[in-house]
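Q: What does the assembled structure look like for these inputs?
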Amino acid sequence: MNVPQSDATTHFDAATAVARTETGDLVAELDGGWNVGPGILNGGYLLAVAARAAAVDSPHPHPVALSASYLRATGPGRVSLAVTRGPSGRTLAHSHVVLSDAGGPTLSVQATTATLGDTPPDYALAPPAIVPPEECLANHADIDLGGNPVPTVGLRDFVETRLDPTTAGWAVGRPSGEPVMRGWVRLTGGRPADPFALALFADVLPPTSWALGLMGWAPTVQLQVLVRALPAPGWCLVEARASEVAGGWLDEDYRIWDSTGRLVAQSRQLARTPR
Amino acid sequence: MNVPQSDATTHFDAATAVARTETGDLVAELDGGWNVGPGILNGGYLLAVAARAAAVDSPHPHPVALSASYLRATGPGRVSLAVTRGPSGRTLAHSHVVLSDAGGPTLSVQATTATLGDTPPDYALAPPAIVPPEECLANHADIDLGGNPVPTVGLRDFVETRLDPTTAGWAVGRPSGEPVMRGWVRLTGGRPADPFALALFADVLPPTSWALGLMGWAPTVQLQVLVRALPAPGWCLVEARASEVAGGWLDEDYRIWDSTGRLVAQSRQLARTPR
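A:
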């Protein structure tokens, strides 16, 4: 599938939109295209939808802290979003969002919203050195898994990904042995990133376990995303790193910088290692 | 206050115990001693209590992922713990714990429990180099804030802390300017650490903003703790690092290694900067 330029500018907004029904409930129509395999929706996509629900009735527009437990896999189609509001003030507002499909809750999210400004940071970690997007590996085009089929990941139609060749040895049959992955990402069609897109980007790269030669899906158990600043337009630089792979468990630690080199988001997830 | 050796071996267990009332509710008696200032209980202590509640009815004994929203400050005394159980299986179990005092909810925690084993890691980040505990700065004894009173932190009576002198310039009036802090920690009296103690240790050091010269309490907004392995007895090495301080917000990223050098826990929190 190719995403036409004109539609794509609003595709992320449409795919993550929440609406209020006549009975006052919040609902969303999850788009099956945002998958990481047949019928399996991307965890960052689901988190972006939950973040939209948290923002609906908040006095603050920006999700700054999101912690999600992935209770079970979520498929495409209609879901409901039950929001329980917590304390709310001038600086921040808390809420708890439960996303449910016909079978019951699938995602439970603690959300904090706030109003991010344009204050320059007192301290901010600088981005790592990486070659520009045009010297990186494109979505599927440059990947060669030794004759094995490259997995079809619907997400890549909506998020352009350019992988740092120094961390993408696995893509050409030579896993680096270091669970680190870096790449440039942006929404296809050029829609600028915002805090909701950063929630998506916080789970957007392939599992770092691929760099250890452990190919396969690494289902997320719990994911925390912190949004630290409003991103400037353009490519975001994403670095993912595992600190430990043990006993069937894997962590993924993300840092995301915008096109100006400002650290705009961080995330950490606990996942199961591919079987 | 000095904690007598004989009592101290079980003080952590007593201070974090949860009990079931005749009506079936879970309750705890929060110990005002575990504070970071007058009437303000430590966030890691509160998280350890919530983790105990999550484990009570779980088929799995170990909290492996905890995400807590700190809704408002929690004082000492009786609290209730409402546990909503999520999906549960052979590998892990999800639950949601709400800790409430007489005024309503103060802490909302998503918990995942599992059964950690003794499998050697496939990959684990090595600890940083640091001098042994006896060459580090002791709790209050070695700290000199230029004649200003050293804040009374009850927590330090229960958790022995030895600060790496290379990251504790703030303690002798010379903040390093780098928001990094390292130290050795253990429960006073020698009780070995376990996953519940690691939840405590994940918020145990002074705010890294002190290394920037921003002295004062940095209230936690949201804290995620991942427990990766069962710790060996002895001192744990804790490293805290901020990646960004901006607009009144601060993150704290912890890694914790046990006495054998195994990475046993990670945490990240979003906090407000000291005023």
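The mean pLDDT of chain A is 92.
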